[in-house]
């Protein structure tokens, strides 16, 4: 959900791809799947630029205001509709989209158990290691260049959460899974703990003929587990109530009515994935860069609340966490400390940090002190 940074390679300035026979294109598809595996991706699929009804659904979501302060979601509206649903508007000449996924859950990382101890600081598991944008974009660009080297010429552009594009819709079209009731892409052999990336190309590659059917059935676990009741209904998320939005995207104070629900989650939220039965099939990643840094998968609220801004910037260098900024980081932990078990130690550190960052943070510290049963 976090606002995408500008990480995408510029369009190739070479001529468009040469005409290839159907047999050559089918052979190339098979080669791309093999090269994608060699590049560290767990799955690769192909689709056209057609995102079906997803463009209309996006516009309805925007019209309802569910995007909150994420104004960038409203950008790039064309005469045909939102550019996010139109890859050929994003990159004119695009005929095909290659969608890829990469698992990110590091071996041995606890999820529900760590979250259950309210003294712990819970960070969404995708954000514990190196910033995925840089790693995956590099792999995608290398894959694009390998395709280019095989056929001589190719117009392509690689993206990973870095442009106005409906990556889950395209991945669904490419057969990588189905979009669940929690709006996540779910794969029946791997759950949903994975990143997505895309290569837009002018190659007329045959789209995947077999799409994964929706296997959510009557299950509503993901909707029911949401601590802030952010789901309006199946497939509809009100971002304004989502903990990922509140702890990452939202500038300024977190609405008081939602603070209790945040619990000890200080950057993002995995609850709608924790509640999904398909995540029992989660595969551990082999990517060392996704290994948690500074033992942040085991950190407590007290130790992270003690970080000054220099420590925060140093410890989060090259990580997704840095995008939230120090002020919001301290704000989030203050709320979590208010929700923590009552203790003298928590009260003392809250009082000690009061006045150290900003008036906005102090307001959250005051709320936390009240929750701890302490006067200012």
Automatic annotation (TrEMBL):
Residues given in the record as [4Fe-4S] cluster 1 binding sites: 216, 219, 222, 276
Binding positions (cob(II)alamin): 84, 161, 182, 185, 196, 244, 269-270
UniProt entry tagged with the keyword Hydrolase: no
Pathway info: tRNA modification; tRNA-queuosine biosynthesis
Binding site for [4Fe-4S] cluster 2: 226, 242, 269, 272
Subunit structure: Monomer.
Protein name: Epoxyqueuosine reductase
Protein source organism: Thalassolituus maritimus
Gene, per the UniProt record: queG
């Amino acid at each position: 959900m976090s606002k995408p940074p500008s990480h995408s390679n510029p369009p190739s300035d070479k001529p468009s791809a040469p005409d290839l026979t159907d047999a050559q294109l089918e052979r190339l598809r098979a080669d791309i799947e093999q090269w994608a595996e060699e590049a560290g991706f767990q799955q690769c699929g192909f689709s056209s630029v057609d995102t079906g009804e997803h463009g209309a659904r996006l516009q309805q979501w925007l019209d309802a205001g569910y995007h909150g302060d994420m104004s960038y979601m409203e950008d790039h509206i064309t005469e045909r509709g939102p550019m996010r649903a139109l890859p050929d508007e994003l990159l004119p000449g695009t005929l095909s989209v290659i969608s890829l996924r990469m698992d990110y859950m590091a071996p041995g990382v606890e999820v529900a158990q760590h979250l259950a101890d309210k003294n712990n600081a819970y960070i969404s598991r995708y954000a514990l290691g190196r910033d995925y944008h840089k790693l995956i974009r590099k792999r995608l660009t290398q894959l694009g260049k390998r395709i280019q080297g095989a056929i001589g010429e190719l117009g392509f552009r690689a993206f990973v959460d870095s442009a106005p594009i409906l990556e889950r819709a395209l991945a669904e079209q490419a057969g990588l899974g189905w979009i669940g009731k929690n709006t996540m892409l779910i794969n029946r052999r791997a759950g949903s703990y994975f990143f997505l990336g895309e290569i837009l190309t002018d190659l007329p590659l045959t789209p995947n003929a077999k799409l994964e059917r929706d296997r959510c059935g009557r299950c509503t676990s993901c909707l029911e587990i949401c601590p802030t009741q952010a789901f309006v209904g199946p497939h509809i998320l009100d971002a304004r109530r989502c903990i990922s939005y509140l702890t990452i995207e939202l500038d300024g104070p977190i609405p008081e009515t939602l603070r209790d629900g945040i619990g000890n989650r200080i950057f993002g939220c995995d609850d709608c994935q924790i509640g999904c039965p398909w995540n029992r099939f989660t595969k551990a990643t082999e990517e060392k860069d996704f290994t948690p840094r500074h033992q942040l998968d085991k950190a407590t609220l007290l130790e992270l609340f003690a970080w000054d801004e220099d420590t925060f910037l140093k410890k989060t260098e090259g990580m997704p966490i840095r995008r939230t900024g120090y002020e919001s980081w301290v704000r989030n932990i203050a709320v979590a400390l208010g929700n923590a078990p009552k203790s003298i130690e928590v009260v003392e550190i809250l009082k000690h940090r009061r006045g150290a960052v900003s008036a906005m943070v102090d307001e959250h510290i005051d709320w936390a002190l009240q929750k701890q049963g302490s006067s200012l």
